Amino acid sequence: MQVTETLNTGLKRQIKVTVPAKDMEARLMERLTSAKDKVKINGFRPGKVPMQHMRKMYGKSFMAEVVNEILSDSSKSVLADRGEKAAMQPEVTMTEDEKEAEKILAGNADFEFSLDYEVLPPIEEKDLSSIKITRQVYDVPAEEIDEQAMRVADSARTYEPKKGKAADGDRVTMDYLGKIDGVAFEGGAAEDADLVIGSNQFIPGFEEKLVGVKEGDETTITVTFPEQYPAAHLAGKEAAFDIKVKAVAKPGELELNDEVAKQLGLESAEKLREIVRGQIESQYGSVTRQKAKRQLLDALDETYKFEAPSKLVEAEFNNIWSQVNADLAQAGRSFEDEETTETEARAEYQRLAERRVRLGLVLADIGEKAGVQVTDDELQRSLFEQIRRVPQSQQQQVYDFYRQNPSALANIRAPLFEEKVVDHLLGVITVDDQKVTKEVLLAEDEDEGAVTEKKPAKKAAKAKTEAKADDAAAEEGESKKKAAPKKKAAAKDKGDE
Hints:
By secondary structure, this protein is of the alpha+beta class. It folds into three domains: about 1-120, 2-Layer Sandwich (Alpha-Beta Plaits); about 160-255, Chitinase A, domain 3 (Roll); about 270-485, Trigger factor, domain 2 (Orthogonal Bundle), CATH 1.10.3120. The chain has 15 helices and eleven strands. The strands form three sheets. Strands 6, 7, 8, 9 and 10 form a five-stranded antiparallel β-sheet that branches. A four-stranded antiparallel β-sheet has the order 1-2-4-3. Strands 5-11 form a two-stranded parallel sheet. Helix 7 (about 310-330) packs across helix 8 (about 340-370), helix 8 (about 340-370) crosses helix 11 and helix 9 runs antiparallel to helix 10. The protein is elongated.
């Protein structure tokens, strides 16, 4: 096999490979000889088939196998011999001339093809101990923990029947049917639905119009869905809800005590506070880490400057751009709605793709040199977390898919590896903790678009930490009662993730 470099520009390489016809013939004869004693052909005893007849019967198919074997092995061997690592699988170019291809399969011509690829750029080792970042830390006060615990406990509040008119804080049990232009819409109907006036569980304006209703009332409430409502077909639309009031109840006294905790499936009020504290601190801690990681990546971006393989950047951009357009379509918005243009957005996400690829290579290099590894147990736990997110009936199918597709499993391993490298780096660089208020911690950075995985509909997804804290203790207690349920008038269309 003759190997000739025909292109060496930047990271791009092109290698011409020539396998002489005599070498192809030798490989073919090995296969024919090996198969001679195994094939059964009418008119010939086993092992007595003439080689010429074997060649006539199996020559082309066996030669095709030889060609595929050479193509499969050559990429690895050429790269190994040259001491190079390809950014992506090399592209193979062969002759498209049918007559020339026939000659190769017949063993009458040299087999020539080219390998086109980009090499991974060399990454210079840097002294990272000089990098300094400020880690924002919010100490959760006891008052906030108690406040959130009370909101969780509110799901266990008792209500007493009320004969009079409903007031703010009262619970209304009702049937409702929502219509737009006289036509009922999916997710806009329910029977025996409980709604506490003032809980802000329904769309704006709905609950206020329940003030004054009483048991047995039938009325129609007209409200308008917010312009930014996640379900595009409902956003900004006026809807009329036919209401039948089944019952009105006034709230009992709310106390945070052991009895209430037990109704939530927990042994004591202190255990409830403990769970709530852990949930809140975990949520704020996640924001703290994300901001610290963002600073770290910014510092690495400034420290490492090199050309990123264009094919990797192109693939990353295509992934980002596909997600961007999917998000816009789901939100029913356009680039103009996001105060930009498609051209400007393309340029922005192209820069983001280049940054992601470059930083990915840097983190991979640092992790490899530091001996960072993802254990099988860690990978297994993460895989199970992925599986838990799908319906139980599909879990075995998803598990089999990941186990049978190494590339899919690699997609689970990659973020685990990245986070472990980040942990390693946070132990190498200088990290100064800064106590901040909740508002400062949750505030978005002005340059966030240049740093994070920004999506067009970022305005609607801002700072979910406080909302998530409302659901503290629900999982721990395995309670049938949910903490502060986020019920909407069209729940099936909320799409708020």
